[in-house]
Amino acid sequence: MKRIIITALMLLLCIAMPLTAYANDIAGNVYEIDDRTIQFKSNSAFTEEEQLKIVNVLIEDENEIAPYNLVCSLFSHKYTSEIITTTTHNVRSSAPKCLLEKINVSVCSRCGYTEKEHISSSYINCHQ
Q1: In 20-65, at which residue ranges do the beta strands (DSSP E only) sit?
Q2: What is the percentage of the chain residues whose pLDDT exceeds 70?
Q3: Is the peptide bond before 96 cis (omega within 30 degrees of 0)?
Q4: Is residue 52 part of a domain?
Q5: What's the pLDDT at 14?
Q6: Domain count for the chain
Q7: How far apart are CA 41 and CA 84, in angstroms?
Q8: In the prediction, which pLDDT does 62 show?
Q9: Residue 14 lies in a domain
């Protein structure tokens, strides 16, 4: 009986461990501006300053124009990329009301040029 209980507990722990790791990866830096929520991973490759710059680029809905520096002109950009989740609330009048988008954002570490690529979008039910 003791072995059955220990085996059941071990199985429960083996199942629970990956779920907690996944949940920790989801929770991250969240920025709420007007009717949009922009979420970065908790272990984001971007600094807080870069995240604020990315939030501004996403809110403005246009790519920032940044001049190439000499190194980027010779060797091209050195990008750091990450997939960011944005939620725009109350887009539609009927359910589902909110728009969930996945956007791949790349920032050049040499000159700061930022580009974004829309990956996917779907309508969801949300609390706002």
Answers
A1: 30-33, 36-39
A2: 77
A3: yes
A4: yes
A5: 60
A6: 1
A7: 8
A8: 62
A9: no
